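TICKET #2291
ISSUE: user wants both folds in one file
ATTACHMENT 1:
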Amino acid sequence: MNNPLGGKLINRIATPRQRACLLKLALPELHISEERFIEVRNIAHGVYSPLTGFLGKKEVNSILSSWHLTNGIFWPIPIILDISFAERKKIKDARRVFLVAGNGKKIAVMDVKEIYLFKKTSFCKQIFKTTDMKHPGVKKIFSRKEYLIAGNIILLHDDRGEFAHYNLSPKKVREIFVKKNWKKIVGFHTRNVPHRGHEHVQREGLKVTDGVFVNPLVGYKKSGDFRNEVVLKAYTYLSRHILPRGKSLLGILEHNPYYAGPREALLTAMLRKNFGCTHFIIGRDHTGVGNYYAPRDYEKALAKYNAKMGIIILHFKEALFCHDCKGMTLENLCLHGENQRVRPSGTKVRAALIAKRHPPEEMMRPEIVNLLLREKSLFV
């Protein structure tokens, strides 16, 4: 099992005594969105180890320019909390604030270290390599507030969210790995329902590991994405009935996607390292969107940073079905012509499901299609 980033799993969850004392304080309140609440929980549970809070200007600039924290630890995307001009005035010189959820509950205390201007254009140029507002990540950044606030947090209420049964902390996942006696674990990230290509690369990962940590993303989705409930239901079936028995663990990742291509692909690898994974699968267009990132972009990022990440990246060529090979294979291993190949296509699968039709069996297992077609609503 892998060590977490920085060598120690961060725990920023208040004890009952700490919580009681902190809730008695008279502090200014900052109301935060569900997206930011997810990030507070991830900091507190060590998903974002070694981070202990939202990042300040020096750390953000270091990540933007070098993909590293100032202490040299690899970290490719800053975790930031934005506030408005009015909220900045409200806080004034307060050294501590409550972070408050939409329901009015005080969910965390933040030690205010710094407030600084959010330079959105330079942020987007570095993270997304574009400032095109058609890019969903860019659009989200420009919709955020004018300032960033930095400081350590401590979680007051450990609400595990809508899918609590599957929302396993890194500590809990590591305990399960030990119980299963898994030494080598491959992590698998997705925000879509599983087609045959996804299944095949997981099986490929199992050839060199003891188990696969199937870790679908649950969080903010852009319009047209599969609903969280649908993704989880499909992967529950895959894990229980299709993957080799006893070789998979299903747990969700609460994470708000940036659609940042190579940078985010490597961030998702780092998060799985914190869960204990020794290997991680990066797909052909991992965490990408549209035509903003090409396969070569991922190859360049891996070539530059792989040695510094401390996790083995499995960057497979495209998985496809070949009639002559009589099953699923990888593009670089198949010697047959294109007329014998069926390439799993998320676009074609989506179109078929919208039309209430079955995609070809070579693209998606009929059992999973039947499960999906029973859903009243598949998409956000």
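ATTACHMENT 2:
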Amino acid sequence: MPDDCFFQFEQDFVDTLRCIPMVVRYKLDICGVKLKLQHWHRFTHAQRLWLVQAPCDTAPEKACYREQLRAWVTELTGAPPADLPVPDPLPWESDGIPTAILRQLQTVGQAPFDEEQWRRLSPLQRFALLKLSQPGHENRNFLPALREFGLSQENCIHEHDAPQ
């Protein structure tokens, strides 16, 4: 399985694909399909791998991805998965840093990075930061993602850390 499909902060589950990786979550959002973790767990490893690796950039690729995913879920459960609205434009394609990310930076005590740094991130990196900053989401990978993407302020000396 190609390592470039996954982020470092996902390495604890990529061998088994027990969790839905960001690359698949990204494709679900751009295809407008809600996939439940219970559905993911019922897929074979080969199906999960296909969902990781299948192209999903052009309109025909998105349609193929969506149709295949809906067919598998329907086959497993007897009902198609729910649809998700696909916003236009996608929130991670904005030139400005989304408010949810700015809020999460404040929550974890990190200074905001600048919009130029945001623009240099790949769409998948932007998507990951946005997903990891959503309320109700397990945010434990937000700081590791910041470090991985070179956006962490960890090397700054805080006043209370400075030698006296």
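RESOLUTION: both attachments delivered.
EXTRA DETAIL ON ATTACHMENT 2: Helices lie at 22-31, 37-42, 45-53, 59-77, 99-107, 115-120, 123-132, 142-148.
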